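=== RUN LOG ===
request id: a7f3
mode: sequence -> structure
chains: 1
length: 95
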Amino acid sequence: MANEELIPLNIVIGDRNYRIKILPADEEMVRKTLKTINEKIIEFKTQFAGKDMQDYISMVLIWHATQLKENKSVSISNDLMDSLLKMEKQLDEVI
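=== RESULT ===
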């Protein structure tokens, strides 16, 4: 990893705000991922009325994991996987 400094980023997942630190080079990927996550949450909210946000987020995680397994052409680089694991750890610390 280069000696880049992490930059703070305010993100929203569902109805919750989080402040994470990421590499500047990862910002676009993180923003695109968040957009997909939040779009899928809205989609599941319209399909499954009456659930709480935790349920919708869980549905999105299951959907995403299934998509990765079904689509063999999707390959996640080690750098991307490391970034996602770091983001998960930071979210766990905030929650």
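=== NOTES ===
The mean pLDDT is 83.
The chain has one domain: 7-94.
=== END ===
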